[in-house]
């Protein structure tokens, strides 16, 4: 397991500058751009906005990691037959999936931590160690439905199709759920849709936590519902693919006989 972890860390994360840029550096760049350059107001208003927008860019980073990072990693390994070769080894594919899952969670945690440090050092946002740790925990939990969606997208027939699907999901979902600007600025029909998105539930939870408010049960239930829905689709799709493969093998044996 540890050797698999080191191997996957090198080949998918440390040597992949594109992954690092889009999942960590780009959300941080947008955060600093909107909180230091494209904003005006009193000191109190700027401080409030810097903390609120921290939550938004955290969820945006999680979305990019899931739909572009996780989906691409799994798709690439499946298309290159790497997963197939692992399935033929004594250890099987379990260490691989545990390794990828662990690294994705760690990368999400690192992304949140770096955004928090930027908010503290550059914008002067006041965050206690407990708030920083709690934010990381909430962000990791909020990322689970997004990761499940990324895993579903990894079964796209081609890398080009996957890229189109990710782009058509990530950016519209970020906009309509209020990650780029307040959701109150959107038309009422768009607000109704946006408030059903997993990114909205996660952003609202994180924002309320940082503002030391009570955490809405609705947000938690919303994230759980998305996770159950996407997890169910993933399990169902896996079972259907397995049944189809078994059917093809059975038909092949009949033809050979």
UniProtKB/TrEMBL annotation:
The record's keywords, sorted A to Z, are:
Membrane, Transmembrane, Transmembrane helix
Which branch of life, at top level?
A: Bacteria
**Major place of residence:** membrane
Kindly list the places in or outside the cell where this protein is found, as annotated in its UniProt entry: Membrane
Annotated ABC-2 type transporter transmembrane domain ranges read 12-206
Which GO terms label this protein's molecular function in UniProt?
A: ABC-type transporter activity
UniProt-listed Pfam families = ABC2_membrane
Membrane-topology annotation of the record: Multi-pass membrane protein
Record-annotated membrane-spanning stretches: 21-39, 59-75, 96-126, 132-155, 162-183, 220-240
Q: What InterPro entries has UniProt attached to this entry?
A: ABC2_TM (IPR013525), Nod_factor_ABC_transporter (IPR051784)
Cellular component, GO annotation: membrane
Protein's recorded name: ABC-2 type transporter transmembrane domain-containing protein
Lineage here is: Bacteria, Bacillati, Bacillota, Bacilli, Lactobacillales
């Amino acid at each position: 397991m540890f050797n698999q972890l080191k191997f996957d860390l090198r080949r998918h994360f440390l040597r992949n500058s594109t992954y690092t840029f889009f999942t960590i550096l780009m959300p941080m760049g947008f955060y600093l751009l909107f909180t230091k350059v494209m904003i005006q107001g009193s000191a109190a208003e700027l401080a409030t906005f810097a903390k609120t927008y921290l939550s938004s860019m955290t969820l945006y980073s999680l979305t990019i990691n899931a739909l572009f990072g996780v989906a691409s990693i799994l798709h690439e390994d499946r298309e290159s037959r790497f997963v197939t070769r692992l399935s033929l080894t004594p250890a099987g594919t379990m260490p691989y999936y545990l390794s990828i899952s662990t690294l994705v969670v760690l990368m999400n945690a690192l992304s949140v931590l770096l955004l928090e440090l930027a908010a503290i050092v550059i914008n002067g946002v006041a965050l206690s160690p407990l708030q920083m740790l709690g934010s990381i925990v909430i962000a990791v939990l909020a990322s689970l439905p997004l990761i499940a969606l990324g895993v579903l997208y990894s079964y796209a027939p081609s890398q080009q199709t996957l890229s189109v699907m990710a782009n058509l999901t990530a950016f519209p979902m970020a906009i309509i759920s209020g990650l780029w600007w307040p959701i109150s600025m959107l038309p009422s029909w768009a607000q109704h849709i946006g408030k059903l998105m997993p990114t909205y539930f996660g952003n609202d939870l994180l924002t309320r936590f940082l503002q030391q408010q009570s955490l809405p049960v609705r947000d938690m239930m919303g994230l759980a519902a998305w996770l159950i829905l996407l997890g169910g689709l993933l399990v169902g799709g896996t079972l259907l693919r397995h049944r189809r493969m078994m059917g093809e093998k059975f038909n092949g044996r009949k033809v050979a006989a």
